[in-house]
Amino acid sequence: MRLEDMRLFAAVAAARSFTAAARSLGMPKQTVSRRISELEASLDVRLLHRTTRQLHLTDVGAAYAERCAELVRLADDANRAVTDAATSPRGILRVTADPELGESFLTGIALDYARRYPDVELEVMLTRRRVRLLEEGFDIALRVGWIDDSTLTSTRLGPARVRYCASRTYLKRRGTPRTPAELANHDCLIVLADDAAMRWPFRGRKGPELLPVTGRLRFNSMAMVREATRAGLGIALFPEFMCVRDLRARRLTAVLDEWRIDAGAVWLVHPTSRYLAARVRAFAELTVEMAARWEWER
Description:
By secondary structure, this protein is of the alpha/beta class. Helices cover 42% and strands 25% of the residues.
């Protein structure tokens, strides 16, 4: 198969749409549809299930799409290795991160990078969804937890722990909880999730334990939870990288530290490749540099 046909199919598979793929490739929709049909005919397999509303990959199509995306990436890496050796960072860099990590840590990096490399177009997408970098066309991700994907190269940036925090005003008014069970007598500030039962993790005798918490204030924004905590409206759970500066400045006070858990680490990851485009390499180096100066813990 021609590499360009594989590139075209990888784009269709990622977009799940002939129209979106055609737009990204700068081709007529009819051309994209025809070439995919010709590809299926030459392979003698069905790669897609077509409906009036959406495209669905067959099992064979899903496996083939992953191979196509990987081969296209390797070819692009080889081409970039030739051109990037003598050029400064340029082109489009796509980065993704968890919203809390992105807003707390990534913003400064993105702005510094934009100032340093004016020839790069920078796209940052913050989402709690675990983005598939290869399939969705992203260059770099910042992730929290543990990394077990052999297709990714990972660099540890710092620890990922949780902290339970409140303002001194709240603790003076309501008292300081000494055990997780005592949170039942406190106002907990809740981050809304898909799971209706709100649970916080704590260190237990046999490992992490999830205990239910309740509160009259519930938000789907960690930034709003942080403001409510500073305002003395309750106790909240934060990733340490998000609250460490408030703890150092004494805007917040940590409680129940003996029950806090280790949630892995903060990582920079990118698709494994022998050659990194200059724009990707520059962003990775800047991120590691900034991480070395970050206040990860109190």
